[in-house]
Every structure is written in C-alpha cells, then in structure tokens.
Amino acid sequence: MAETLPDPTLTAENPSRPLLRTIGLTQATAMVVGTIVGSSIFVQPSEVSRAVPSFGGMLLVWVAAGALTWFGASICAELSSAMPRTGGVYVFLREMFSPAVAFLWGWAMFWSMHSGIIAAIAMVFGRYFATIVPLGDLGIRLVAVAGILVLSVINYLGVRPGSSVQTALTIAKVAAIGVLLVLLLATGTPRMPAALGGVEARAFLRALVAGLFAFGGWHMVTYAAEETRDAERTIPRALMLGTAVVVVTYLALNSAYLLVLPFDRVLTSTHIAFDATQATAGPAAASAISMLVIVSSFGAMSGIILAGPRVYYAMAEDRLLFAWMGAIHRRHRTPYVAIAMQAIWSSALVLTGTYGVIVSRVVYTEWIFFGALAVGTIWLRRTRSYAPAFRASGFPIVPVAFALVCLAIVVNQIAADPRESLTGLALVAAGLPVYYFWSRAHARDRLSQPLLSAELHAGAAIGREQRQGDRR
C-alpha cells in the first residue's frame, strides 16, 4: 500500500494555513448531534407542557421547533458551502451586513450567550454528578469548573483529540438514549390522551422558545470550517444528517414520555426522563438517568468549548479583538489563548452564579441574528458571485416565514418579560460603542475588509484546495 503523505499546506511552517484540517464527516456530524443533545431534552419537555397543557399543543410545539431547527440548519449549510471560513456565523454576518453586526454576535457570544451556556451546562453536569457523589453547593460548582477545565485542556491539545472526545461522547449518549426509548416503550403501559386540545398563540410562542432551547447549538459546527476536510461539502452534510438525527430522537423521546406517563404527571414533572423511567422500569433504572445526563451534558459542553474560540480567532484576524486572542499554538495548532480565556470567563460565571441571569436575558437574542441570516441569504442569491455547493429549499417563501417566526419569538419574549428582555438587548447593544471605539483606535492597524465577492471566491477556492488535498 502506498504511503499517504501529509498535505504540505498543513504544516506549522506555513503561516497562511495555521489550523489543521482533521475534522471529517463523522466528527462534524457528532459535533452537531452532541452539541444539540445536552441536558435540556431530559427536562425541557416539562417547560413546554406547562406553557401548552395539551397533547396536541405539545406535539405541535416539538414539530414546529424541529422544523425551524431544520431550516435554520439548512441556511447555515448553504452559507457554509459558499463561505467555508473559520468563524461560521460571524463570517456570514460580516459579509452579509457589516463588521459591526458580526462584532455584536461575537461580543454577545463571549460575554453571555456562548460562555453562559457553557457555564449553565457545566452546572447541570455538576448537579447530576452530585446525585452519585454527595456534594454541597461549592462542591457542585467546583465539579462544574473542573469539567470546563478538563475539556478546555483537551481542546487546547488539538482539534483532533477534541473532536475525538466529542465523537465518543456523542455515540455513547445516542446509544443510551436508544436504550432509554426501548425501555420506555417496551416496559411502559401506553396511555392515549383523551383529546388533543387547543393552543393559544402567545402560549405557543413561549413553549416554542423552550423547545428551541433544547434544539440549540446546531450552528456551531460552522465555526471550525477551516479545520474541516472538504468543508464546503462536509459541513452541509453534517448539519443535515445531524439535525435529522436530533429531530427524530426528540420526537421519539417526547412521544414516549407522553405515552407512558399520565398527562397530569407530564404537566407537573421537573425531571420528566427520570419520572418516565421510574414509572416504567422502577427506581434502579431511573437512577441510571443521572449517568445519561452526565454523559450528555459533558458531550454538549465539549462541542461548545471546541466551537467558540474559533469565532474569537476570526475576530482577532479581523483586528476586532486583541491580536493575542488569535494566537495559534505552534505545536498543537489550536487558538489556545481564546480557549483559555473562554474557560476562565465561563468558570467565573459558574463560581459567581451569574450565568443563569445572563443566559435567561440574552439567549433569545440569537434568534434576531438567525432571522437576519435567512433574509440575508435571499439577498445573496441575487449576487453573481454567490455559488454555494448546497442550496436550502423553499426560497424565498420559507426564509421569509422563518424570519417572521424569529421576529415573533423576540417580540413575544419582550412582551412577556420586558424588563429582563430589554436588559438583555441592552447587553448586546453595548457592544456597538465598543466596536466603534475599537475600530477608530485601531484603524491604522486593521487590515482592509474583503469585498463580498472576494470573500465568496475565496471560499470557493478553499473548497477546491481542500478537495485537491484530499485527492493527494
């Protein structure tokens, strides 16, 4: 067998290619599935049921959340195939609108959305770990911080070990969920609801937000495009395949919960997976749910920790952050400073207990950006230089509908809790004066921003180079 030589463009001596392409389709798909399937699906159905207390309402919410997630993923798949660059959504927003809009995304990611979600999932990990080893509040927080630090070190050592850990954890959690489904459906007594029931519009939107939170994270695979082999084809395939796996899994789990538990129990449950397992297989089997949530939370945290620093790296490359935030480790070829800073801030949010407030205020704002991506893609399709390898279906009706739903989610959130919601918007908007101050102070140092057509052609060139490298 002929020896396979390494791609010479991937060496540390080539400064134009500082990141190594080690993520294949399996790893990218595992990142999509593993990032989405965290701990929410084991508790979030109860939040949905409280907002829409009917079988029909719950079913409609989960179908709608799955459909929105599928279309959002298809938009990111199309954009990734046209612009397979490190930073993903950040790059898309920069090229569609302006560096200021992209900066707001990165600003919100670091200070609240991304780091806060890492902290929140780490706390879930710590709390469930405490069901096995009894711990007080400080012990739980220290376990949460330890989880963040361990995964950050793994990702510091290289994208290959980071994505390998992510893949292994994803396979383990999907297999465990499969066992849970078989257990619930094989040993439970199916209970058909008496009636489907109606749904009130505002309650439906509140429930939809809860459902979408459980589906969150599908876009993060786009952040590591320049570390993905044949990214313009691999990322779209991973997004579509991974999202399909999650949608089917979530619908199956929620159907199982509804079929094996009395409906009034579904409405009052705060840990529905545990209650459903206990009702069908007894306390011993239910206790195993803690291990499933631990593995699932750890896997979700792994994917999020891997993804975020790539955005901060891209921002530093654009001279929108300190240059040292874009530093690449000479040996491991990872954005190690960004990984470390993310770990420090996420750990601080855990130790201070501020992550819950921050996430609840800000996480819904990402749907403003998702709606903007859908509208921006309509405009991109009118430009000659735009030639994605993958195209989302349903244009232009579906993206307009998607953007309108995103707008409805945001408006409903503000109407339901105006003080907290407007505070969250203010936190995001606070990035604007920072951006303009930074841009003016570093105007001489900043590299000129590429024109849209140049960026799109560069993305296509990268895709061709990847395929040539793979053939070699």
Describe the overall structure:
This protein has a single domain (19-437), classed as Amino acid/polyamine transporter I (Up-down Bundle), CATH 1.20.1740. By secondary structure, it is mostly helical. Helix 3 (55-82) runs antiparallel to helix 9 (231-260), helix 5 packs antiparallel against helix 12 (283-317) and helix 8 packs across helix 16. It has 19 helices and no strands. The chain has helices at 25-36, 44-51, 55-82, 89-96, 99-129, 137-156, 159-187, 201-214, 231-260, 263-268, 272-281, 283-317, 336-352, 355-362, 366-380, 397-416, 418-429, 431-441, 452-471.
| CATH fold label | Amino acid/polyamine transporter I
Secondary structure: number of strands: 0
**CATH first level:** Mainly Alpha
CATH architecture call: Up-down Bundle
- Report the uncertain regions: 1-16, 447-451
Number of domains: 1
> What is the average per-residue confidence, as pLDDT, rounded to a whole number?
84
Topology pattern, helix = H, strand = E: HHHHHHHHHHHHHHHHHHH
Structural class call reads mainly alpha
CATH level 4 superfamily: Amino acid/polyamine transporter I
Q: What's the helix count?
A: 19
The residue fraction in helices comes out at over 70%
Using the alpha-carbon principal axes, give the shape: globular
Radius of gyration: 22 Å
Give a brief outline of the structure.
The chain is built from 19 helices and no strands.
Salient structural properties:
472 residues, disordered N terminus, mainly alpha, 71% helix, Amino acid/polyamine transporter I
